[in-house]
Write a structure and sequence with these properties.
Length: 473
């Protein structure tokens, strides 16, 4: 399998090259040249597999440059009950009739990001050792990618992490998870801005090819194809748990911000997984809901990006939409580049409402969407607690709220759980008047000493910081 850039760069890359490069040299995102198809018989055979074995099967379809035995060992080392809290790794929990929650947040940092980031840590360690190289990872987080990346990379040989986060925009627990880490290879940087400013800086630094090469800059955000690939696995696993027979349909609802998680669902569907509907749920920052309803993609400014009670989804510029639009446009890299480079830069928006490709997008790709508000989140947290004895976090609540708008009788609807409630205790207290459960290993985390640097929203300032740290270590 080879990978190409959504913006048409001429290079065809192997998986491990994309793993280390992150962003393509032309600023585009790597996608597989084709989506491998999984037929009904194969899907049926996969019903019996454990999570690590299923991960190995799915990853093998996309990774041609790691020997099978090594890839299998990496999957087995990554997806263990000790790390993910249960032998099933990503179990389904039934809520109502036909409504399921897929538990993805039982890993080290209590968010779905661990599902991919733990694998990425092991893949990077393997590949860097094989090449005798090291890597400076530059990332952006609105709260969960940062801690998941740092927990996955701490102590890993050859890897240093520089993580940008929007100052004051994350929950107290999220900040404590990241800023209390004292490992010498972990560097937290708060930026005066919102998540989109952090992500813009990551892209700007990664697009300076001379700097990128000199300081060996890599990425762990979902701009890195390996992140998405790891997330494809749990769609297969969730589907196989929710259905009993060949080619039965099932739908997924996915709380969305950077469009990474649901883009993995799109990939699974393109591989032939019988997903009827892929329902995208946003909070009040509803850029993506607007796009799927109207065909108009209109990025919001920093001041128009609202601070909500599902803060990890306070994103107004969704990187991975580019991967979906590339497919929507029939894989026309020239048009994708025009939309995501020229039109977004010049107008901050593009409009596909009159384009024939958008007219049948819902039918062809299964997307539906909806938005949820603070009041919806509180009501859904209360309802899910009262009716199903299950406490969900505000992001998952956005998912459950929107899933109720798009359910189809007789067909399973799987909502992806994206974090545990303890990460957002203030909203849980507001909804339920009680504290969420706290795993003992996080007792008192908010009181630990913090190590964090503050920088302006300026790519050059971040480059200077990376250069200084890289030279002194
Ligand atoms: C808890 C939580 N829910 C949902 C999302 C949205 O996921 P994505 O950015 O992959 O769309 C994020 C962040 O990405 C998150 O941290
Ligand atoms: N919500 C994320 C933002 C970054 O998303 P990613 O999937 O691109 O890593 C976060 O919590 O940091």
């Amino acid at each position: 399998m080879h990978y190409v850039s959504t913006r048409g760069h001429s290079g065809r890359k192997q998986f491990c090259e994309t793993l280390l490069e992150g962003l393509a040299p032309d600023g585009g995102l790597y996608v597989p040249e084709t989506y491998p198809r999984v037929d009904d018989a194969t899907l049926d055979a996969w019903r019996a597999l454990s999570y690590p074995s299923l991960a190995f099967e799915v990853l093998s379809l996309y990774i041609g440059d790691i020997p099978s035995a090594d890839l299998k060992a990496i999957c087995e080392k990554t997806y263990t009950p000790e790390v993910f809290g249960s032998p099933k790794i990503a179990p389904l929990r039934q809520l109502g009739k036909g409504l399921h929650l897929q538990e993805l947040s039982n890993g080290p940092t209590l968010a779905f990001k661990d599902m991919a980031m733990q694998l990425l840590g092991n893949l990077l360690e393997y590949e860097l050792a094989r090449r005798h190289e090291d890597l400076n990872i530059l990332g952006a987080t609105s709260g969960d990618t940062g801690s998941a990346a740092e927990y996955a990379m701490r102590g890993k040989r050859g890897v240093r992490v520089f993580m940008l986060s929007p100052r004051g925009r994350m929950s107290a627990f999220q900040q404590a998870q990241m800023f209390s880490l004292q490992d010498s290879n972990i560097h937290n940087i708060t930026i005066d801005g919102v998540f989109d400013n952090c992500q813009d800086i990551v892209k700007r630094v990664s697009s300076d090819l001379e700097f990128k090469q000199r300081y060996r800059i890599g990425a762990v955000n979902s701009i890195n194809w390996a992140r998405l690939l790891a997330q494809v696995v749990y769609y297969f696993y969730g589907y196989l748990q929710a259905t009993e027979r060949r080619s039965a349909g099932a739908s997924f609802t996915v709380p969305s911000g950077n469009f990474g998680n649901i883009c993995a669902g799109h990939v699974a569907r393109m591989m032939g997984l019988p997903i009827s509907r892929l329902v995208l749920a946003t909070n009040e920052n509803d850029v993506l809901d607007e796009f799927f309803r109207t065909g108009i993609y209109r990025v919001r400014s920093r001041t128009d990006t609202l601070e909500t009670s599902s803060p990890s989804m306070d994103i107004s510029k969704a990187s991975n939409l580019e991967r979906f639009v590339f497919d929507l446009l029939g894989r026309d890299a020239g048009r994708t580049k025009l939309l995501f480079e020229d039109q977004l830069r010049e107008r901050g928006a593009f409009d596909l409402s009159g384009d024939p490709c958008f007219a049948d997008a819902a039918a062809r790709f299964g997307f539906r969407s909806g938005r949820s508000t603070h009041a919806d989140r509180l009501a859904t947290i209360r309802d899910t607690w009262g009716r199903y004895d299950t406490m969900i976090d505000p992001h998952t609540a956005d998912g459950v709220t929107v899933a109720h708008m798009h359910g189809s009788p007789g067909e399973p609807m799987i909502v992806l759980e994206t974090a545990l409630p303890i990460k957002f205790a203030a909203t849980i207290r507001e909804a339920l008047g009680r504290e969420p459960d706290r795993p003992a290993r996080f007792d008192g985390i908010e009181d630990l000493p913090k190590r964090v640097e503050a920088l302006p929203a300026d790519a050059q300032a971040v480059k200077n910081y990376i250069a200084r740290i890289a030279q002194t270590h």
